[in-house]
Each structure stands twice: as C-alpha cells, then as structure tokens.
Amino acid sequence: LKMEYNEVLQMIEHLPAEQGLAIKLKYIENMTLLEIAEQIGVPPKTIKSRIHDGTQKLRKWKTKSEERMDK
C-alpha cells in the first residue's frame, strides 16, 4: 500500500505511543532495532513486535480508508 508521507505521520499519531515511537525511530530516524532498544530500555524483540503491530494497524486503517473512498 502506497501512502503519502504526511498521511503516514498523521496515522502514526493515532497509534499507541510505544508503537508510534518505535516506528518513527526505525523508519524516520533510520535507527536499528538494537539502537532503539538501547535508547528505550527494552529488548530488541519488543521493539520488533511494536513495529510489527503498529504497521499492521496502519495497513488495516489504510485499507479501510480506501474502501470508504471506493463507495
């Protein structure tokens, strides 16, 4: 799913704070999972889960948004 940068940023703001922060640090700040984990103080596996869960929500929201526009 292709999304506009500003649209993605707005959608990230609606995620739980932990997921939004992990996604911003990974994809906007280009930090590694290990760097993010060290900065936040949780295991890298936790960061990976937060990013996965957050991106799944973003995809779901985007799909629903597109479905509404098709009607």
| Distinct helical segment count | 4
Give the averaged pLDDT, no decimals.
91
Low-confidence stretches: none
Largest sheet features: none
In terms of DSSP E residues, the strand content is under 5%
Structural class: mainly alpha
The arrangement of helices and strands along the chain is HHHH
Rg estimate, integer Å: 13 Å
**What's the end-to-end separation, in Å?**
19 Å
Shape estimate:
elongated
Strands, total number? 0
| Percent helix | over 70%
Walk me through this protein's architecture.
15% of the residues are buried. The protein is an all-alpha fold. The protein is elongated. The protein is built from four helices and no strands.
Keywords:
71 residues, 77% helix, single chain, 0% strand, 4 helices, mainly alpha
